Each structure stands twice: as C-alpha cells, then as structure tokens.
C-alpha cells in the first residue's frame, strides 16, 4: 500500500536525523545537569526545551519566545531551546542528555516513552480535540460503511488527530480494517488541498484541520461523516534525569501561573486557544496506546514502525 511506502520513507529520514543528533551529542555533550538553583533549588539552573512539532531553531525561537520567557521567569532558570524535527529526534535528544523538558501531543508522548524514560508533568487539555472523518458536500458517501475501498487523506505518520486517531476510529469505532478495506494516504501538508480538489474520497481531519477548512473554504466546504471521541491532553514531559522534586515544583509553579503559561502557549500556536492545564499521569495515555494497537502498530516496536 502507499501508506507503507510513505512510512518507510519517513522512517529512513527519521533514523538519519536521529544519528545526526547522537553524533552531535558525542561531539559536544549535554549542557544540563548544573547546580540545583532553579525553582527554589529543586531544579537544575538550566532546563533545555524542545517542541516535537516545531522544526528548526529559527521556528522554535519565533514561535516559543514568549513561552521561553514565561517559563524562565516562573521557574527561575535559564530556559534554553533545543531544536528537534519530530518525536524520533526528540527521543534521541533525551537519550543523549541534550533535552530536559519537551512539549508533545499524546501520540508523540506514547511513542517517545516507548523508547526512553520520561515523566509526564503537566497536561494541556484542548477542548474539542478529536479526530473526524469528513467528505465533500456532494459526496455519495452517506454512511461510514460507504468508506470501503475509498481513498482517505491523513496527515503525517504518528500524528495524534491526523493519523493514529483516525486509523483507530476507522478500525475500532467503524469496524473497517484500515490496512485492507480503505486506502489510507499520508499526504502531510497537501492533505487539505487534495481533499478540496476531490483527489481523495474522504479526509481524516483533526481539530486544527477543521478550523483551517472553515477559515480557508467556509463551513459549507465539507460534510461531517464521523465525529470521534475526545483525545488525551498534550503533555509537558521531562527526562528521567530530572528529579521528582523538580517535576513537582514545575507542576506547582505552572499551575499557579496557569493564565500566563496558557497565554504564552496560545502565542506559540492557536490550537491552544481555550485550553486548560492539569496534573497528568501516565495511565491517562493508555487510551492512546489502545489507539496505536487498533491502528495496527506494536508498541514494542513503535519507533521502528513510525
């Protein structure tokens, strides 16, 4: 299937990038693990931050400048950026002691946690965060059973609302095998235009995609076929090298400054509009692990498969 070819291509690129991170770590080494002066003496004086959804240092600085400033102030630390291109590079950076704290979606959290030891600290609950299947208004697809044999546009491999969530929805909720009974196509940034142009029969649209459809083409540009259940929260996680005391201090200070932190997150990405923060535990992501299994992925070999 096209899906397997695209996954293999992405996997090769990810492995190449991961090797680059590890080579860099061997040449330069980590910079963390300084004196425990931050957050009232519970945390290192420097915390190195990465966002798994932002490519490149320039984009990271541009999008998360306000978040960097807020976190540095409330935690009383140097809050440094470390650029990663995806969850595989993020996991390699954690393993190489180059990243202390990461921001990721629920699928990315599960994927990273399948490879390295991490601790979930703060959950970012996004209202209406789910996966949906939409079709064009004049489509002859009237019922989920009509999806059999159809082309469905998805986002990128490993995306929570644009890949794993929709595949789990198709398999678990609709009883359709996404491997054999539909043609799932990973189209990345071309997914919306491909759908509007009629190059695919349906579109597995996450919350952000629905918003983009509304903004670019209007609410009458699509018809909702299946609306999926809410997905778990995005998560601020830390490397296992960060102490429990530091994690507790991060959680307390972030929640005490919730409005300021959320404003900074919203400045980085509009998807965080109307979000809320909460303490989070690993078992809250068991539903995401079930989604991976429903989508046909083995958690034991997750990083090799995505």
Account of the protein in words:
With 306 residues, this protein is an alpha/beta fold. Helix 3 packs across helix 4. The strands form 2 sheets. The chain has a 6-stranded mixed sheet, sandwiched between helices. The protein has a 5-stranded mixed sheet with strand order 7-6-8-5-9. The chain folds into 2 domains: 199 residues, Periplasmic binding protein-like II (D-Maltodextrin-Binding Protein, domain 2); 101 residues, D-Maltodextrin-Binding Protein, domain 2. The longest helix is centred in the N-terminal third of the chain and has 27 residues. The N terminus is likely disordered. This is PhnD/SsuA/transferrin family substrate-binding protein.
Gist of the model:
With 306 residues, the chain is an alpha/beta fold. Helix content is 43%, strand content 19%.
Structural class: alpha/beta
Count of extended strands? 11
Order of helices and strands: HEHEHEHEEEHEHEHEEHHEHH
Uncertain runs are 1-31
Note the gap between the termini: 15 Å
- Multimer state: single chain
Please tag this protein with its features.
306 residues, D-Maltodextrin-Binding Protein, domain 2, 2 domains, 11 helices, elongated, disordered N terminus, PhnD/SsuA/transferrin family substrate-binding protein
Structural topology:
Layout: H1 2-28, E1 46-51, H2 57-75, E2 78-81, H3 87-95, E3 101-104, H4 106-113, E4 118-125, E5 130-135, E6 151-154, H5 160-173, E7 183-186, H6 191-196, E8 202-206, H7 207-217, E9 223-230, E10 234-239, H8 244-256, H9 258-268, E11 276-279, H10 286-294, H11 302-305
Parallel strand pairs: 1-2, 1-3, 6-7, 6-8
Antiparallel strand pairs: 3-10, 4-10, 4-11, 5-8, 5-9
């Amino acid at each position: 299937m096209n899906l397997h070819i695209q996954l293999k291509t992405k996997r090769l690129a990810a492995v190449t990038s991961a090797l680059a991170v590890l080579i860099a770590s061997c040449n330069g080494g980590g910079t963390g693990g300084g004196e425990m002066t931050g957050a009232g003496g519970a945390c290192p004086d420097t915390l190195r931050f990465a966002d798994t959804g932002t490519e490149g240092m320039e984009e990271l600085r541009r999008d998360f400048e306000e978040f960097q400033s807020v976190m540095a102030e409330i935690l009383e630390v140097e809050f440094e950026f470390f650029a990663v291109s995806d969850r595989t590079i993020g996991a390699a950076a954690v393993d190489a002691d180059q990243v202390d704290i990461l921001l990721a979606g629920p699928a990315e959290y599960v994927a990273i946690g399948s490879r390295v030891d991490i601790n979930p600290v703060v959950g970012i609950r996004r209202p209406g965060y789910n996966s949906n299947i939409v079709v064009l208004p004049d489509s002859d697809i009237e019922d989920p059973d009509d999806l059999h044999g159809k082309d469905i546009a998805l986002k990128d491999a490993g995306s929570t609302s644009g890949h794993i969530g929709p595949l789990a929805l198709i398999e678990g909720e609709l009883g359709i095998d996404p491997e054999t009974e539909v043609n799932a196509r990973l189209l990345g940034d071309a997914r919306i235009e491909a759908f509007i142009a009629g190059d695919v029969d349906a579109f597995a649209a996450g919350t952000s995609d629905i918003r983009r459809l509304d903004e670019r083409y209007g609410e009458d540009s699509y018809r909702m076929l299946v609306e999926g259940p809410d997905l778990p929260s995005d998560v601020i996680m830390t490397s296992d090298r960060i102490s429990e005391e530091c994690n507790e201090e991060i959680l307390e200070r972030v929640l005490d400054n919730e409005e300021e932190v959320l404003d900074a997150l919203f400045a980085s990405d509009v998807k965080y509009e109307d979000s809320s923060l909460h303490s989070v535990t690993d078992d809250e992501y068991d539903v995401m692990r079930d989604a991976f299994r429903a989508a046909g992925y083995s958690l034991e070999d997750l990083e090799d498969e995505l």
